[in-house]
């Protein structure tokens, strides 16, 4: 009863104290795509994440009701840093929903023209607004509409303490006439939030870096906690604290209080001990998540050893590994010998026939590819050749009987219209491919079937092709699985290797692309196609997560194009539209919205790319 009454009181007082217009509220998820397009189209960093901003402490003067309800102590404001642009989780500043949506767009425009650093928050924002309106005059009506509506909602200047009145007047003037105010008075409280402006970056990060390294060169590669959820949830503020050393304490107990086997009590476990979604709810309610700095966690040390399987269970390594560079976007340079790529053969691979469930599909695809087969024909009336051209000889004999005639080409030569093409298919074998598509099939099963049908199709047409798979565990172990090289024929041994592939680890795509580029460049063909089959974004458990991986992969693609290759990406990641255009270009990728279509569509995509 007390809880019920308390919840009603909380709802009532919070609603009374709130200055927001809930009926006109616009959530970030409703406008996230359009905001991202505007931000990047107007010059914003192409690989910056556009995400929702969590609430942050904001010490401004509150009304009596706000003090009672505890409202208005934290706000979700717009800010950005070098990795992301953060916009409010929701906006209900104006009574009209259209204005709230326009405010999101306006903030994205400002962010696209701001470096993310402030010398003086108010003066810099004024100048930023003035510069944007000068560069884009068409935005003036939108801004004036927002500014006039926002100024009407500002607190009454006459009701403020005298020390704060000058500040409020200066802010209103700066909003109406950007660039007109050159100085702002100092006050004890922050002014009411100016939602039309950007704020300095907050110390908020969902990737908590560990306090210890993995090796002598791993200081900048500290492990991060990586969430696989592709939502737009705001990140929490974090801090680290020293943990108390519990080993210094003394535990006192009575030995006779322990149960014997005969006194065993079968107790039902409480729901608090179960693994459910309560942890996520608690995390959502927390304003700050505190992480212990304790470094002697045995589980973390064991995890390092278990990152790779034992040698008896792992694939078969070929050689000592290949050192490859990696692109550091912060320094804008390739770091030489940064990665170690290990060529491998799939373990327990034995020669196998094509699986029965693929044989009918393979025949249909092979029939489609027969039109791409090399066309061979006789070239007539040649000065030399393999055989005598009887028609040409007969014409020459008749003409010679009539008059003196010079000898013409009397031979025919057997020629072929060869497809001068080499293709390398690079398949992502990371652990994400172990996820289930339905009750009967995983992503890795789809990838396996796709590789088999791809091999059957290209074997019929006679094109020169190779197939490799890749995954990674940090930069020192990039796994490069050999399925078929260019010198091998496509036979049951290759089919056996493909059927032996299994999900691996992470997706360090840049190193794998660089090695595939080296292999493909060595081919003598005039056309060289690099097909990349993946199910997710470039990532690894070190610094490769996020922008670093995207930038390195983009640079690897640039290097491949400079080497004369034609890269093309095929993905089953539904979020790929957010990053693939930046990495591969607008017309160099395709997204399969249903992974089950991939086995049939992969050969068809190759057919389309090479038919001309």
TrEMBL record:
<feature type="domain" description="VWFA">
    <location>
        <begin position="422"/>
        <end position="609"/>
    </location>
</feature>
<protein>
    <submittedName>
        <fullName>VWA domain-containing protein</fullName>
    </submittedName>
</protein>
<dbReference type="InterPro" id="IPR002035">
    <property type="entry name" value="VWF_A"/>
</dbReference>
<dbReference type="InterPro" id="IPR051928">
    <property type="entry name" value="NorD/CobT"/>
</dbReference>
<dbReference type="Pfam" id="PF00092">
    <property type="entry name" value="VWA"/>
</dbReference>
<dbReference type="InterPro" id="IPR036465">
    <property type="entry name" value="vWFA_dom_sf"/>
</dbReference>
<feature type="region of interest" description="Disordered">
    <location>
        <begin position="211"/>
        <end position="243"/>
    </location>
</feature>
<feature type="compositionally biased region" description="Basic residues">
    <location>
        <begin position="227"/>
        <end position="238"/>
    </location>
</feature>
């Amino acid at each position: 009863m007390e809880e019920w009454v308390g919840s009603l009181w909380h709802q009532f007082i919070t609603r009374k104290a709130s200055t927001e217009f809930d009926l006109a509220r616009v959530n970030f998820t409703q406008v996230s795509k359009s905001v991202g397009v505007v931000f990047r189209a107007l010059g914003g960093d192409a690989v910056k994440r556009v995400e929702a901003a969590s609430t942050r402490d904001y010490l401004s003067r509150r009304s009596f009701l706000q003090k009672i309800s505890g409202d208005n102590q934290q706000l979700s404001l717009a800010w950005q840093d070098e990795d992301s642009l953060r916009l409010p989780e929701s906006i209900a500043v104006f009574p009209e929903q259209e204005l709230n949506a326009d405010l999101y767009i306006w903030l994205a425009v400002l962010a696209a023209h701001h470096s993310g650093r402030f010398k003086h928050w108010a003066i810099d924002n004024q100048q930023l607004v003035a510069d944007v309106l000068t560069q884009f005059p068409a935005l003036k009506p939108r801004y004036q509409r927002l500014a006039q509506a926002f100024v009407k909602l500002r607190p009454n200047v006459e009701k403020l303490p005298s020390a704060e009145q000058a500040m409020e007047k200066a802010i209103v003037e700066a909003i109406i006439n950007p660039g007109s105010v050159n100085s702002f008075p100092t006050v004890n409280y922050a002014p009411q939030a100016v939602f039309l402006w950007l704020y300095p970056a907050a110390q908020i990060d969902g990737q908590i870096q560990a306090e210890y390294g993995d090796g002598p060169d791993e200081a900048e590669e500290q492990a991060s906690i990586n969430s696989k959820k592709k939502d737009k949830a705001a990140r929490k503020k974090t801090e680290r604290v020293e943990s108390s050393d519990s080993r210094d304490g003394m535990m006192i107990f009575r030995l006779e209080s322990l149960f014997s086997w005969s006194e065993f009590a079968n107790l039902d476990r409480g729901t608090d001990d179960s693994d459910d979604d309560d942890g996520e709810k608690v995390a959502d309610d927390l304003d700050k998540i505190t992480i212990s700095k304790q470094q002697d966690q045995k589980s973390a040390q064991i995890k390092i050893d278990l990152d790779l399987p034992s040698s008896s269970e792992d694939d078969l390594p070929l050689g000592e590994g290949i050192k490859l560079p990696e692109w550091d976007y912060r320094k804008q340079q390739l770091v030489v010998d940064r990665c170690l790529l290990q060529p491998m053969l799939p373990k327990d691979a034995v020669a196998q026939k094509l699986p029965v469930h693929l044989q009918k599909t393979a025949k249909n695809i092979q029939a489609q590819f027969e039109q791409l087969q090399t066309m061979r024909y006789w070239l007539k009336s040649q000065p030399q050749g393999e055989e005598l051209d009887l028609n040409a000889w007969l014409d020459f004999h008749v003409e010679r009987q009539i008059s003196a005639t010079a000898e013409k080409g009397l031979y025919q030569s057997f020629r072929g219209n060869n497809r001068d093409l080499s293709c390398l298919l690079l398949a992502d074998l990371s652990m994400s491919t172990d996820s289930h598509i339905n009750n009967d099939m995983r992503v890795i099963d789809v990838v396996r079937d796709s590789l088999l049908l791809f091999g059957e199709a290209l074997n019929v047409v006679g094109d020169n092709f190779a197939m490799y798979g890749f995954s990674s565990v940090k930069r020192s172990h990039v796994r490069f699985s050999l399925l078929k090289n260019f010198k091998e024929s496509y036979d049951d041994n290759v089919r056996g290797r493909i059927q032996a592939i299994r999900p691996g680890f992470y997706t360090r795509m840049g190193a794998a692309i660089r090695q595939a580029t080296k292999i493909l460049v060595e081919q003598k063909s005039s056309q060289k196609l690099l097909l990349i089959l993946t199910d997710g974004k470039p990532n690894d458990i070190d610094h490769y997560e996020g922008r670093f991986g995207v930038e390195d992969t983009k640079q690897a693609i640039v290097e491949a194009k400079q080497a004369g290759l034609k890269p093309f990406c095929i993905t089953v990641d539904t979020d790929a539209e957010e990053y693939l255009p930046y990495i591969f270009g607008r017309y160099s990728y395709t997204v399969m919205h249903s992974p089950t279509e991939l086995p049939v569509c992969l050969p068809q995509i190759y057919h389309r790319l090479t038919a001309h």
